[in-house]
Each structure stands twice: as C-alpha cells, then as structure tokens.
Amino acid sequence: MGISIAKRILTYVLVLFGLSILIFVIARVMPGDVARMALGPRTPEATVEALREEMHLRDPIYTQYFYWLGDIFKGDFGVSIISKRPVLDDIRIYLPATMELVLLSAVFTAFFGIVLGVLSAKYSGKWPDAIIRIFSYFGVVAPAFFWAVLVMLLFAYLIPILPSSGRIGPGLTEPAHVTGMYILDYLLAGNTAGAFDALKHILMPAVVLSFGGISQAARITRTSMTENMMKPYASAERAYGIPENKILFKYLLRPSLNSTISVMALDIAGAFAGAFLVEQIFNYPGLSRYCLQAMLNKDVFAVSAVVMVFGVIFIVMNFVTDIIISVLDPRVRLAARGEA
Amino acid sequence: MKANADPRYAVEVKDLFVSFRTFKGYAKVLNGVSLHVRRGEKISIVGETGCGKTTTVNAIAQILASQARIDGGEILFRGVDELKMGKKELRDLRSGGISMIFQDPIASLNPVFTIGAQLREVIRYSGADGANNKEARRRMAMNALAETSLPDPERIMENYPFQLSGGMRQRICIAMALATPRDLIIADEPTTNLDVTIQDQVLKTIRGRVEDKGSALILITHSLGVAREVADRIYVMYAGNMIESAPADRIFKKSLHPYTQALMDCIPKLSGGGIAGGIAGRVPNYFSPPPGCRFEPRCRHASAICREKMPGMSEVEEDHSVACFLYRDGR
C-alpha cells in the first residue's frame, strides 16, 4: 500500500512538471509582446526595454523557464499584469469563488445524476425512462451557456425570483475571509440571511453548471444498473425477499457506481476550468473568468499559475476518485493490497 | 381460493403457460406444466437445456424476467394462488416461504458486500423469530454457515465472495437459502458450475440441510444420476411440457416415455457399452409449435396420432404418470 501511494505521488509530480513546461511554452509562444502589453502603448521604449530585461524576456526560453520555476519554488508565481498584484493573491480571491460554485454543482451532479440514473434503470423502457433519457440527451448536447441564458431568462426575468449576477446583493457587505466561500463564511459568522442571499446568487450558475454532469452521470448509471439487473444476484436478492427499492439503491447501485464516479470526477474537475462561460454570463467573479481575461491580455504569469492550479485540481480529483472507488468496491481495494 | 387446495402439498402448479417476448414474437416456453411437491418431499426436474425447467421454478419463486408473460394456470402455495397475490403477500412468500439456490454461485452473490452483510440481510427479511435483533441475526448467520460445514464462519463472515472458492460460495448460497425456516427450497442446477470433485459434497449438503429443516425441495438438473441421488420423485420435462413423473427408483427401473428411456441410455455405464450415442435431433422450435407431441420428430415409436394431438399426462400406476399415447387405452 505504502509503495503504491509513493509511486502514485511520484507520477503526480512528473505530471505537474510536464504540465509546467507545456503551459510555460504555450504562454510564451502566443503572439504579442508581453512587456509592451503590460505597460501600454504610450510608455517610452526604454522603460519597456527595462521590463523586458527584468522579466528575462531576452534570454532563451529554457533559461526563462528555469527562472520562473525557481521563483515558484520560492512561492513566487509572479505579478499579474492586469491586476498588478501577485498572482497568488488573485488566486486566493478567485479560487474559493469557483470552488464554491463547482462544489455546489458537484452536489447536484452526484445526487440528481445517480437518482435519475437509478430511476431510469428501474423504469427502463417505460415513460419515466424516456423522459430522463430525453433530458440527458439535451444535457449532453446543449452547452452550459445555452442553459445559462435560458434559466436566467426564466428565473431572473420572466419569474424574477433569483438574482441574475454577482455573488451577493448590493445591500450586503462581504463576509470576513475565512474560506473565501461566501455561504460558508457567512454561516461561520452566524449571518444566516447573508448565507441565504449568497445561496440565491450561486443557485442558478451552479444548477446550470451541473446539467452536463447530471446527464452524463444519469446515462452511465442507467447503463451499468441495467447490466447489473440481469446478474443472477439481483434475482437472488429478490428471491430472498429483500425489498425492491433496497435492492436498487443499495445492492445494485453500489457495484454500478465505479464508472459513474470516474466520469463524474472528471466532469467536476473539468467544471473548474470550464466554468468561464457560466461565470461570464452570471457575472460571477471566479477563477476561470479570471483565467480567460488573463489569456486575452497575455498575462503570462497569471495564465501559467492558474493552469497549474487546474492541474493540481485534476490530480486531487483523481486521487479522491481512486479512494472513493476503493471504499465502495472491495475488489479494487483488496487488489491494491495484493490480497485478491 | 383455499377451497380447492390440497393441504398435503407445499406447492402445486396447475396447467401453467408462460411465454417470452422476443424479437421474433412470443416464444411459448411452458405449455401447460403441472406439478406438485408434497410437504417435506424432495423432487427433481430433469430435462435438456432450454426445456423450461428454470422458467417453471422461477415462476414458482415469482422472479420471472420482465420479458416473461404468464398466459394461464395456477401456482398454489400454502393453498393461495401466487398469480393473484398482492405485493405484500408476494414479499411474505419470498421472505418466509420459498428460497432459492442458484446455478452460478459466483454470480449469485453480490460482489461488493461481505458474506456476513448479505447473510444478515437475508435473515432480516426472512420474518423469522429474532430477525429484528441485530445480535440474533449475527448469531443465526454464524449458525447457518457452521451448519453447512464451512470452516471458520467468523472469518468467512468478513470475506467477500471473490475471496472464496466456488465450492465454498455454493455452500454459502445454501446457508443463505436455509438460514431460516422455509417451506420450499428451489435449487437450480446447483452443481453444474462446480468442480466434479465437490459436486457430490454439495449435493449431500443440500439434501442433509433440507431434511434437517423439514423443507420441501425442487432440484433442477440435467442429470438423472444427480436427480436419483437426491430426489424422492422425478419429473422429466421436454420442450415446455412435463412428460413423465415417478418415484426416483421407479423411473430408473421402468421408465415409460421414449424420451426418458433415451435419457437413461445416455447415462454412461461403467459396465459395458461405454458412452451411448445420445438422442438424435434437437429441441424443437418454440414459436409455432406443431399440434402434436413435441417429441414426435425424434421418437422411434411415433405414429399418426402423435402428429395430430398432444398427449396429456395420465397416471399409469400409483404416482407414476406419463404423457405418451403408447400407454393409452384404445390407442
């Protein structure tokens, strides 16, 4: 067990190292003069030249990379060209906002994806299954920004019950920064009204962000459930008199979850980076919107740092998935220990 | 409903018709199957693969696949027709009344729960005394394992199915089926997937445990030898019909139906002869069955009437019935 974890951590380190080279090169070869864009068109050439010197832009790209990597090990990710603040400070503000959004949408994805998948399998071939399958086709096919506009039109304009943008209403002050997630921070401060307001703001983007994942999870759960329903142990459990719903939600669901969880984890990790359209439409100050703006402005340090953060998130999600699956499935767990 | 039930019977199937929905239409799998099992009696249903043995017992346990349709007949359990039972009565039937041992012990145990968890759950829904008490459930589970002569029940309770051998798994299935008192145990080819060397032990365990508990048993097998070892009475099935039934030793001494006789000839004998030639032809088509006897195309005694009419079961001597025109008066 210990060796396999050590092996895995080594792999993760190598992956991050590779990712850092990749993103550094891509960020530098993008067209545009970094120093010129940072200082604006009216700055005298001498000043720009000085910045180029300071950023080592005249050196070969591999030298630049080692300067950058060296700074990272010192905890310095550079200064953002747009915000003029250290990139790390920006991430500290924007990451929790996206984290809050993605976590809530992950809860929706897990709950509705699995429940709809099980119901779809239970009524396989009948009308509830048909409805769920049509919904999941749309969920997979139509992109999140389509749902964003639709939902916003419905619940912010036609039936105005939810706010259409931002993280909190105009009358509220931001909660003291503890986690950076407003709902949690308000609750920690004992401000339930604030938490409720933050929840109302985050509800629409989170729901919209979860549509794709729900559809995907429901379809995969349905497939593995219907497959497992044909297994003799399903008949056996029925023959022993175990109630139908318990068979479905406990004895058939558990062995069916492996592929659902793997796909769901990738969907959730992807949502961190893929949330930018939703964040943009709901004017939600999150990390992927920040990353998008950084890309448009050739903010090399910000882009590289944010992409590294996304990389770490993917790795963490992978790790968490492996753990969840090995908890749910003894075959995986014991195989890892070499007992099977 | 109870008026016409015979109290000596654990289960009685009357004239059961079942068909399966397929791409080609409805396949008529059971064509008027009747059988009865007396309380505490051990019977065996023998027949080729695909003749409807499993469909018959799945109908009795009410676990037919969703494509199956019951077209007619009655299944009387404790004198009540299962086909008219409501949801709750069916639950009671499954949990306290009937239990099953399946063909494939690898696939009939849930792969991701421990043996103990599965056993306790079965006991929990069995309606047995003490099934509501957690500690009692555990004790009953351990007992059930010990009674099927599994070594170290304590450890096995913590094991997952894939950590055990095929023979142990089948013993666990037996323990599950018999952990609590049941009127009827159905064993669907319980030894087919096992190593030859342990088949015999498993059969002995089933027989012994059923006798201890006083349950009735329906054993499905395609081997007359296995049937004889366990059963008091044997039913022979062919293409969705019962064709002969008789006490086990009787059927070995004097089988009447040409198909049963052919099956007997297929049993390899140690003294002389070697392996027999088998039965020519194949199991017939289920979609548009001809009107006559289903065995007629393969039968060496076939005559004109066999092509026109299906022979019904008729008793030729006590407890010995056969569905063949050879044994009808006025043939």
Describe the structure.
Chain A has a domain at 99-298: MetI-like fold (Orthogonal Bundle). In chain A, 76% of the residues lie in helices and 0% in strands. Chain A has 15 helices and no strands. The longest helix of chain A has 38 residues, at 192-229. The relative contact order of chain A is 0.13. Chain B has 331 residues and is α/β, with parallel strands linked by helices. Chain B has a single domain (2-264), classed as Rossmann fold (3-Layer(aba) Sandwich), CATH 3.40.50.300. Chain B is 32% helix and 24% strand. Chain B is built from 11 helices and 12 strands. Chain B has helices at 53-61, 87-97, 115-124, 134-147, 153-158, 166-177, 196-213, 224-230, 248-253, 258-266, 304-308; strands spanning 9-22, 25-38, 42-46, 68-77, 80-81, 98-101, 184-188, 216-221, 233-238, 241-247, 314-317, 320-322. In chain B, the strands form 2 sheets. Chain B has an 8-stranded mixed sheet, sandwiched between helices. A 4-stranded antiparallel sheet of chain B has the order 2-1-4-5, covered by helices on one side. In chain B, strand 7, helix 7 and strand 8 form a beta-alpha-beta unit. The longest helix of chain B has 18 residues, at 196-213. Chain B is globular and about 65 Å long. Chain A binds chain B through residues 231-233, 235-243, 251, 254-255, 328-331, 334, 339-340, and chain B through 58, 61, 63, 91-96, 98-100, 102-104, 107-114, 121-122, 125-127, 160, 162-163, 173, 176.
Q: Count the helices of chain B. How many?
A: 11
Strand order of the largest sheet of chain B: 6-7-8-3-9-10-12-11
Succession of helices and strands of chain B: EEEHEEHEHHHHEHEHEEHHHEE
Instruction: Give the mean pLDDT of chain A.
Output: 87
Outline type of chain A: globular
Give me the CATH superfamily of chain B.
Answer: P-loop containing nucleotide triphosphate hydrolases
